[in-house]
């Protein structure tokens, strides 16, 4: 009960905008009461690490007592800058620079974890905690989303209390027009602009069965003729998951809960129980 009340309090705070600094850089952060906890909501001392280098906007190399690890930040997805087969995407470089401003080389950072500690690429999956200039905890994953340098990565589930907070942080960034949600996104060669009505990038069925338009909150089938630009997409595995996230079905392709009814039933059961 205490955990639920704490999460509710954090969500209510999304209507209030705070600013703080880290390494002298000012950032928007509305979750000053959020501190490292384990998966049952008990406060913990996160693992100490030192920054080796920032790889891109959502990946960092750190030195732990057990050795150097590549850490993929949980719950956030930033535009690509170092993908071997993709061009640099709009706001990718800005996202990398933002994380670099929060995590300078050799600086102290801290890590907590979710149920799964590693992804299929054997990277460590972590919540990256830093300490603001005022001495308060800052969850870097969440700061990236709230400041508009990345998307809340909700198609792959992580701890549910954090998923709610990340979704609210993205809504706030959208409403304020921060970063990649601004009307004039930073141009990048070889990418489709965020404002384009139709993307030339083929949908990836391995990412999900449905595609949502992040800006309009419209849900599409993968074969819809009105898919959003790649930078404005979010993938969902189930129809129920998308509806819970506030998405409405496209009037043209009319995505249906019946298309993958077995998976949808499992999703409904999980939602209710």
For this entry, give a set of tags.
about 270 residues; alpha+beta; OB fold (Dihydrolipoamide Acetyltransferase, E2P); DNA Methylphosphotriester Repair Domain; five-stranded mixed β-barrel; four-stranded mixed β-sheet; 14 strands; globular
In words, what does this structure look like?
The protein has helices at about 1-10, 90-100, 140-145, 160-175, 240-245, 260-270, and strands at about 20, 25-30, 45-55, 60-65, 65-75, 75, 110, 125-130, 135-140, 150, 210-215, 220, 235, 250. By secondary structure, the chain is an alpha+beta fold. It has two domains: about 1-180, OB fold (Dihydrolipoamide Acetyltransferase, E2P); about 210-270, DNA Methylphosphotriester Repair Domain (3-Layer(aba) Sandwich). α1 packs parallel to α4 (about 160-175) and α3 (about 140-145) packs parallel to α4 (about 160-175). The longest helix has 17 residues, at about 160-175. The relative contact order is 0.13.
Structure, briefly:
The protein is an alpha+beta fold and 273 residues long.
Topology:
Layout: H1 2-12, E1 19-22, E2 25-28, E3 47-56, E4 59-64, E5 67-73, E6 76-77, H2 92-102, E7 108-112, E8 124-131, E9 137-139, H3 140-146, E10 151-152, H4 160-176, E11 210-213, E12 218-221, E13 233-236, H5 239-244, E14 248-249, H6 261-272
Parallel strand pairs: 5-8, 12-14
Antiparallel strand pairs: 1-2, 3-4, 3-7, 4-5, 6-10, 7-8, 8-9, 11-12, 11-13
* Distance, first to last CA: 16 Å
> How large is the radius of gyration?
18 Å
Strand percentage, roughly? 15-25%
Number of strands: 14
Approximate helicity band:
10-25%
CATH architecture of the largest domain: Beta Barrel
Overall spatial form: globular
Q: How would you state the average pLDDT, rounded? A: 81
The level-1 CATH class of the largest domain: Mainly Beta
CATH topology of the largest domain: OB fold (Dihydrolipoamide Acetyltransferase, E2P)
Order of helices and strands: HEEEEEEHEEEHEHEEEHEH
């Amino acid at each position: 009960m205490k955990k639920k009340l704490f999460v509710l309090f954090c969500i209510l705070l999304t209507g209030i905008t705070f600013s703080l600094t880290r390494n002298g850089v000012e950032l928007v952060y509305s979750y000053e009461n959020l501190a490292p906890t384990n998966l049952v909501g008990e406060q913990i001392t996160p693992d100490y690490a030192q920054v080796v280098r920032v790889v891109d906007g959502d990946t960092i190399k750190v030195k732990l007592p057990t050795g150097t690890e590549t850490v993929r930040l949980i719950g956030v997805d930033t535009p690509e800058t170092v993908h071997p087969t993709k061009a640099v995407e709009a706001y990718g470089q800005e996202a990398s620079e933002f994380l670099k401003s929060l995590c300078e080389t050799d600086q102290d950072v801290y890590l907590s974890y979710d149920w799964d500690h590693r992804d299929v690429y054997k990277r460590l999956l972590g919540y990256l905690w830093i300490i603001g200039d005022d001495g308060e905890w800052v969850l870097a994953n969440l700061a990236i989303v709230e400041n508009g340098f990345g998307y809340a990565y909700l198609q792959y589930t992580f701890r549910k209390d954090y998923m709610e907070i990340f979704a609210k942080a993205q809504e706030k960034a959208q409403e304020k027009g921060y970063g990649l949600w601004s009307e004039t996104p930073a141009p990048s060669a070889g990418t489709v602009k965020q404002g384009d009505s139709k993307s030339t990038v083929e949908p990836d069925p391995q990412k999900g069965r449905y595609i949502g338009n992040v800006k309009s909150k419209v849900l599409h089938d993968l074969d819809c003729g009105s898919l959003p630009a790649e930078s404005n997409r979010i993938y969902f595995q189930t129809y129920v998951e998308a509806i819970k996230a506030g998405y409405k079905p496209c009037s043209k392709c009319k995505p249906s809960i019946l298309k993958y009814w077995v998976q949808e039933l499992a999703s409904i059961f999980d939602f209710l129980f």
